[in-house]
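User: Study the shape:
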Amino acid sequence: MSEAVVTATGASVVEFRNEDGIGVITLNRPESLNAWTFEMGVEYLALLDAAAADPDVKVIIVTGAGRGFCAGADMGTLKQLMAGELPPREGVREDFATEPAVPKPVIAAINGPCVGLGLARALYCDVRFLTRGTSLSTAFARRGLPAEDGLAWLIPRIVGWSKGLDLLLSARTISAEEALELGLVNFVVDDAYSAAMAYAQEMVRECSPASLREIKDQIWGGAAASLPEANARADELLLKAFTRPDLAESVVAFLEKRQPNFPPLTT
């Protein structure tokens, strides 16, 4: 991993910790509502890769420090872009659809304002918790920008064609209640982080890492598949599941009335 970029207080702009098998990635520029910078992107992707490869991490939570999740692109970064002053970008990964490729559940705990690039980050997560009273926005049309990072593809698939056009063309503010109704988030709660942690803890206790990887791949990887193709893939994975210890462990654990002890994820 490259040398970490730090804030004025000496903290990393993105932080990671492992809480009993749950990898917590925290966007850490609270003074700017975690506005997105180039450096933050590099750190975030490196930590996401590391968590994906770590067998001790079963589930990943992404959240923001302070009172925001991510307020979109940092204005200083936008000024640098317009002036052509950004640092060299050779070798820098900028693929925003990274979370779907992670072979573990990635949960967004949206604890505050979530706008533009921040919304992209959240929507590519598998499950989203939103703190009550928090608002969302695509923002791009009000910044003179196109819909970035594949959101013109993703948002209509989540909310439908007409509603996707509305959200992207108007760039209007979306309340927590509307976000839930549209399916942009799964849960609206009093505390997104606490609720996401409880959800992740249950997943760690009860779910097979191998099954989580395969189901996630079936959904994200099979988004463009036909029904016969999806069924064929499911049959292939089912035969594979019969050869793994996870199924036997789940049956024995059920009969013994205990929590299953599934093996960690392997390549």
User: Anything to note?
Assistant: The first strand starts at residue 14 and ends at 19. Confidence is low (pLDDT under 50) at residues 88-92. Strands lie at 14-19, 22-27, 59-64, 106-110, 114-115, 127-131, 136-137, 187-189. The radius of gyration is 19 Å.
